[in-house]
Amino acid sequence: MTQINTTSAPRIADYLKRLKSPWTLTLLVPVVVAILDQPNTVPVIEFAIRALLGTLPYIVFAVIMIASLKAAGAESVIAGIFKGRETRMIVLAALFGGLAPFCSCEVIPFIAGLLALGTPLAPVMAFWLASPLIDPPTLLITAGALGWPFAVAKAFAAVGLGLMGGFAIKLLQSRGFLSAPLRASPVSRCGCGPDPFSGKPIWAFWNDSTRVQTFKHEFAHNALFLLKWLAFAYALEALLITYVPASLIAGLVGGEGVVPIAIAALVGVPAYLNGFVAPPLIAGLMEQGMSSGSAMAFVIGGGVSSIPAMAAVWSLVRRQVFAAYIGLGITGAILSGVVFQLVV
Question: Do the Cβ atoms of 283 and 233 come closer than 8 Å?
Answer without folding.
Answer: no
